[in-house]
Design a protein that fits this description.
This protein is an alpha/beta fold. It has helices at 10-23, 36-47, 60-72, 87-103, 129-150, 176-197, 221-229, 239-250; strands at 26-30, 51-56, 77-81, 108-114, 154-163, 202-208, 261-264. Helix 2 (36-47) crosses helix 8 and helix 4 packs parallel to helix 5.
């Protein structure tokens, strides 16, 4: 006697498709992965089950340490050294993603996190063509062209997260170029949310305030006091604060969120910078 044929209902097929989708490996790309915030983002996304392609510019020791930590915790982190201010550097990241997708059957590119940035730029009087271009190339041009290339590898449900800064919302006489580039990143986020939304790709941003990324200035009492006074809640954030916001925006919990920003600046964006304040560097001898 032959076995009866079981017909899948539409609901049953949908459930099966969802199960297949959940079993597919997901790849995420994080730039600036060797810094404090970038490393925290990589660790958090790995903990959520993603394979992490971690771009770094020069700190190979820190990138390899991150890969080891992720591996010990049962995850996979693929470091890629690339200078994102150059065409070749951008190509190196894209090529690494292409190879990872090809080597992992059924894998999909789930997210891109544009975190790499130059900080603490020159004042108006001290700026040169070279320093201006360096900030714009890394902080604005690199995210733009990474999105251009990697979004073509994404399918509906994928997420792009751009890391902005409270500096985009606070006037500062001492750091105009950095602030300007982060304003550009926010404009890019809103505009591409519309363009890529047609493909089901979400584009959002995170707005950190002062965040202890391991820089020596966070150990300077005067500098830390200055930074803490800039926020409503006081003190400075830890990198995990930014990472938590990123993991939410990458996750399915944010499936209906696009063109939006999560502000984790502890209220820095709610009020203007102190009168006459030239920036945190003015507190250091």
């Amino acid at each position: 006697m032959s076995e009866p044929t079981v017909q899948k209902t539409d609901c049953g097929q949908a459930m099966a498709d969802e199960a297949d989708e959940s079993r597919r490996e997901t790849i995420v790309v994080v730039t600036g992965a060797s810094g404090g915030i970038g490393a925290a983002i990589c660790a958090a996304l790995s903990a959520d089950g993603h394979v992490v392609v971690a771009q770094f510019a020069s700190n190979r020791a820190q990138a390899e340490r991150l890969a080891r930590v992720v591996s010990v915790r049962g995850g996979t982190c693929v470091p890629v050294q690339a200078d994102l201010t150059t065409h070749d550097g951008l190509v190196a990241v894209v090529d690494t993603v292409t190879k990872q997708l090809a080597s992992r059957s059924g894998a999909r590119l789930a997210a891109l996190v544009n975190n790499a940035a130059l900080m603490q730029g020159p004042s108006l009087s001290a700026a040169t063509f070279e320093t201006f271009d360096a900030f714009v190339h890394l902080n604005v041009r690199a995210p733009f062209f990474l999105i251009q290339a990697l979004s073509t590898m994404m399918t509906a449900g994928a997420s792009i997260v751009n890391i902005s800064s409270a500096s985009a919302h606070i006037a500062s006489g001492g750091d105009p170029i950095y602030a300007m580039t982060k304003s550009a990143v926010e404009s890019l986020t809103r505009n591409l949310a519309i363009e890529l939304g047609a493909n089901g790709i979400r584009v959002n941003g995170v707005i950190p305030g002062y965040t202890d990324n391991g820089h020596p200035m966070f150990q300077d009492p005067a500098a830390r006091q200055y930074m803490g006074e800039m926020s409503v809640l006081g003190d400075v954030a830890s990198p995990s604060t930014v990472a938590d916001a990123v993991t939410f925006l990458v996750s399915d919990a944010a499936a209906r969120t696009t063109g939006s920003f999560i502000d984790v600046s502890a209220g820095m964006t709610l009020r203007p910078r102190r009168t006459g304040a030239a920036g945190v560097r003015s507190t250091r001898s």
